[in-house]
């Protein structure tokens, strides 16, 4: 019995243990779980593959970025190297430019006179003088004696007559002006070719300048292009004139810039000492709403004053006086009853500080000269110093030196050629400037009268060289070797040299016309001179040549 119960219990326990709900059989679900695992493994493998691709893409992007950064660094490094190389070239260029500038300044200070050598002259002239028949000394002497020397007496008589009349006219002008309101006129001075004894072309015209000053308590304060003020390149050689009170500070009083308060008073500018209003400034010949002297207003005032002065003294003379040229306000003409006439220019000027440099209201503007930038810009003339320099140098030259003769012959030839082919960019002032440069550069003995032919050739060669380079510098401006005896203002000696041929660079048509006229003059030189030369026997000419050898 117990064994039976034991068996029954064993069967029950075995049944319970093997019941599927209590202990499920793993072998029965193996196929199902394996498929899920395989599926999950595939999904995992796919996700790992995608992750690998993403990582590979990120790595590729990072490598590309790294390469780009490295390339950029290389570019920056190369640009730095190029910049260093460029800086080196820039520095080298600046050094070369400075060397050229130093050489140019030395050239301006007098080294250029070495270019007068025969070798350099021939290099400069090129084809200009080839085939040119240059007149000999005998022909030049005969031409000068017949055509030019006889005009000296006529010029002297004309100067004396014009100066006497101008003094009388200005004295009458002072009498008709209001001394409390009008400008104060000083004595006139003669300048230019008539007073330097080298004018040859008729009609003879005397150039007289008349300094004037404002009424008290006013004065003129001038500003030039080389005084530190800003003037563009096309305004070099000009200046402006400001009308100020004599007791007014140049830099301006502080009372104009700050509020002093009601209980404070400026001792320099009281209510009774204020600047004139705009209308009264215009009475002082200033440009509208400014304090700058107006050249057009000055000329209008001067013409009216001259007309009034002539009406007062006209009964004393047996001739008529009139303004002859509309484009030259100071041009006057004396007409005699016989039909003859005498022309002269009477031009108002303003003195520059305490020197003999003057601001001129209207300048004879021919050739290269351009119009004034505005009516408040005044041209500076150095005519008084030019006359003094010629007189000073003439004292050191041999007796009967040929410097004036050369200038007269050259002026005659150029004027005659222009009458045939039309005007060119060259003027008599350019010719005189060439002579002034050579006067300073050449030894005194080179200007002996027997060297007329050689000196004339030197003038032509130097002029041809200047035309070739488009450079002819003003004699006084930037010239550090002006004789101290002249008392020339140092500010202009230290200024940048002023190129009188600068317009040739801007106007190529005028330059081409000028060069053609110059070369045509060289070709026609012998014909022009022979036209006014007394016939010289061939034997006499040959004898002169033999004596000169």
TrEMBL record:
One Pfam family hit: Mab-21_C
Key word Cell membrane present: yes
Topology in the lipid bilayer: Single-pass type I membrane protein
Xref: InterPro entries: ITPRIP-like, Mab-21_HhH/H2TH-like, MAB21L/cGLR
GO terms for cellular component: nuclear outer membrane; plasma membrane
Signal peptide (residue range): 1-15
Ranges for domain Mab-21-like HhH/H2TH-like: 404-477
Keyword terms of this UniProt record: Cell membrane, Coiled coil, Glycoprotein, Membrane, Nucleus, Receptor, Signal, Transmembrane, Transmembrane helix
CDD domains associated with the record: UDM1_RNF168_RNF169-like (cd22249)
Record bears the keyword Coiled coil: yes
Transmembrane spans: none
Coiled coil: 38-82
Subcellular location, principal: membrane
Localization in the cell: Cell membrane; Nucleus outer membrane
GO molecular function (one): protein kinase inhibitor activity
General function of this protein: Enhances Ca(2+)-mediated inhibition of inositol 1,4,5-triphosphate receptor (ITPR) Ca(2+) release.
Family note: Belongs to the ITPRIP family.
Protein name: Inositol 1,4,5-trisphosphate receptor-interacting protein
Organism: Eudyptes filholi
């Amino acid at each position: 019995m117990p064994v039976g119960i034991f068996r029954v219990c064993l069967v029950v326990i075995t049944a319970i243990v093997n019941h599927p709900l209590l202990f499920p059989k793993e072998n029965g679900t193996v196929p199902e779980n394996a498929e899920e695992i395989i599926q999950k493994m595939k999904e995992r493998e796919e996700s790992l593959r995608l992750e690998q691709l993403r990582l590979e893409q990120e790595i590729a992007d990072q490598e590309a970025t790294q390469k780009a950064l490295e390339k950029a660094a290389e570019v920056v490094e190369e640009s730095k190297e190029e910049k260093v190389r460029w800086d080196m070239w820039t520095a080298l260029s600046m050094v070369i430019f400075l060397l050229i500038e130093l050489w140019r300044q030395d050239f301006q200070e007098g080294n250029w006179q070495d270019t007068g050598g025969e070798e350099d002259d021939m290099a400069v002239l090129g084809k200009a003088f080839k085939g040119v028949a240059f007149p000999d000394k005998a022909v030049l002497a005969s031409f000068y004696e017949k055509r030019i020397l006889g005009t000296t007496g006529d010029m002297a008589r004309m100067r004396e007559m014009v100066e006497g009349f101008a003094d009388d006219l200005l004295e009458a002008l002072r009498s008709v002006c209001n001394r409390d309101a009008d400008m104060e006129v000083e004595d006139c001075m003669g300048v230019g070719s008539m007073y330097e004894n080298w004018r040859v072309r008729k009609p003879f015209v005397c150039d007289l300048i008349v300094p004037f000053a404002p009424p008290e308590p006013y004065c003129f304060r001038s500003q030039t292009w080389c005084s530190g003020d800003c003037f563009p390149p096309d305004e070099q050689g000009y200046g402006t004139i400001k009308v100020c009170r004599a007791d007014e500070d140049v830099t301006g009083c502080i009372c104009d810039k700050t509020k002093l308060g009601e209980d404070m008073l400026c001792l320099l500018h009281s209510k009774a000492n204020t600047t004139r209003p705009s209308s009264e400034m215009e009475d002082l010949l200033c440009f509208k709403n400014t304090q700058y002297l107006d050249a057009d207003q000055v000329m209008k005032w001067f013409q009216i004053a001259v007309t009034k002065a002539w009406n007062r003294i006209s009964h004393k003379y047996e001739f008529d006086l009139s303004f002859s040229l509309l484009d030259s306000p100071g041009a006057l003409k004396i007409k005699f009853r016989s039909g003859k006439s005498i022309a002269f220019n009477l031009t108002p000027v303003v003195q520059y500080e305490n020197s003999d440099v003057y601001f001129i209201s209207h300048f004879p503007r021919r050739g290269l000269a351009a119009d004034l930038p505005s009516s408040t810009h005044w041209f500076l003339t150095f005519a008084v110093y030019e006359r003094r320099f010629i007189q000073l140098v003439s004292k050191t030259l041999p007796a009967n030196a040929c410097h004036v003769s050369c200038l007269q012959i050259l002026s005659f030839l150029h004027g005659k050629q222009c009458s045939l082919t039309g005007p060119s960019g060259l003027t008599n002032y350019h010719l005189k400037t060439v002579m002034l440069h050579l006067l300073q550069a050449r030894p005194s003995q080179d200007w002996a009268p027997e060297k007329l032919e050689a000196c004339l050739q030197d003038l032509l060669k130097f002029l041809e060289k200047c035309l070739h380079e488009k450079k002819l510098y003003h004699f006084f401006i930037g010239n550090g070797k002006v004789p101290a005896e002249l008392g020339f203002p140092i500010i202009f000696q230290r200024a940048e040299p002023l190129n009188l041929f600068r317009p040739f660079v801007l106007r190529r048509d005028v330059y081409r016309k000028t060069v053609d006229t110059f070369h045509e003059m060289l070709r026609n030189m012998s014909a022009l001179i022979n036209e006014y030369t007394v016939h010289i026997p061939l034997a006499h000419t040959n004898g002169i040549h033999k004596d000169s050898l």
